[in-house]
Design a protein that fits this description.
Layout (H helix, E strand, L loop, with lengths): L3 E5 L5 H11 L11 H10 L8 E5 L2 E13 L2 E11 L8 H15 L4 E7 L3 H9 L3 E12 L12 E3 L13 E2 L9 H6 L4 E8 L2 E9 L8 E4 L7 H9 L7 E8 L4 H8 L2 E12 L2
Parallel strand pairs: 4-5
Antiparallel strand pairs: 1-2, 2-3, 3-4, 5-13, 6-12, 6-13, 7-9, 8-11, 9-10, 10-11
């Protein structure tokens, strides 16, 4: 199998990383169907930076990797694990652990404060590996889905419904429930690929009291939020009903929602069903 070398992915092509990514996840629990343009969209959306990412090479072939996103949030440097993988024929060689050690060294040199990731809650080997390397569970995420045809229509009544995405830039998210979104659902993630989303806002007397986004092709809703004090007043269902016809997907999904938020209790009433649980784990580098 040749000598193994671990180094930064800074000068590696998107195509080479994509091929390793697809091979690594070929036997993943959730079937991975991702053409290269969708992979590139993921890289852009999540601010994946190959300069903060590492790979393991065997005779020039990328056989393992950790893809990292980078952002500065509230004055701190954060890196996000956008994907860890090792191709099947190179597993059980401690490559993932060696990649992590190399990555931590790289991030410390750049004074990164926090490294975070998401992992399926039933992926015990990965969770054990992360705990061994100093990660702790920060939050538990839940994911929900509904068939488009099962979304009930809702009358706007006294509300005004708008679709101008430019209004989103000026919205102060601090006034809206729920919570701090996961990395992939943050405002910057949406703005990174805003053309791939449709938007809906609900207003009363000129004030936006709820809004949501949906991916035009995949049907993912990265944000569904209402103004504090307006939770559980049918706004959530109104927004979903307005967004449902703005995606090509037959299935609508809300993923990586903090299990503690009030929206979790509302979604089953709208018709959503739970389908996936994950942990957000963090590692402090300072």
């Amino acid at each position: 199998m040749g000598n193994l070398e671990i180094c930064s992915l800074e000068n590696i092509s998107l195509k080479q990383v994509y091929e390793a990514f697809m091979e690594s996840f070929s036997d993943y629990e959730i079937p991975m169907e991702m053409p290269i343009d969708q992979f590139e969209e993921m890289i852009i959306t999540r601010d994946i930076d190959f300069g903060y990412s590492v790979g393991c090479f065997s005779d020039g072939k990328l056989v393992g990797f950790i893809l990292c996103g980078y952002r500065e949030i509230d004055g701190k440097k954060y890196c996000y694990n956008g994907g860890t993988g090792v191709i099947p024929s190179f597993r059980r060689k401690a490559i993932a652990n060696d990649l992590f050690i190399k990555l931590v060294d790289l991030l410390k040199k750049d004074n990164v404060d926090i490294f975070l990731l998401e992992v399926l809650e039933n992926n015990t080997p990965a969770i054990d590996l992360y705990r061994k390397n100093g990660f702790g569970v920060q939050r538990r995420f839940k994911s929900f889905k509904i068939n488009k045809e099962d979304v009930l229509g809702v009358l706007a009544n006294d509300y005004t419904v708008g679709y101008d995405k430019t209004n989103y830039v000026d919205i102060d998210e601090a006034n809206f429930h729920p919570f701090m979104p996961s990395w992939q659902n943050q405002k910057i993630s949406i703005l990174n690929n805003i053309d791939n989303y449709e938007y809906c806002s609900v207003s009363i007397d000129g004030e936006v009291i709820g809004f949501g986004f949906i991916h035009k092709k995949r049907g993912d809703i990265p944000q569904l939020r209402v103004l504090k004090g307006w939770e559980n007043k049918n706004l959530e269902q109104l927004i979903v009903s307005e967004l449902k016809d703005k995606t090509e997907s037959d299935v609508i999904k809300l993923v990586t929602l903090d299990e503690s938020i009030s929206l979790i209790k509302i979604l089953p009433d709208i018709g959503f069903s739970y389908f996936l649980g994950l942990y957000e784990m963090t590692f402090s580098l300072d």
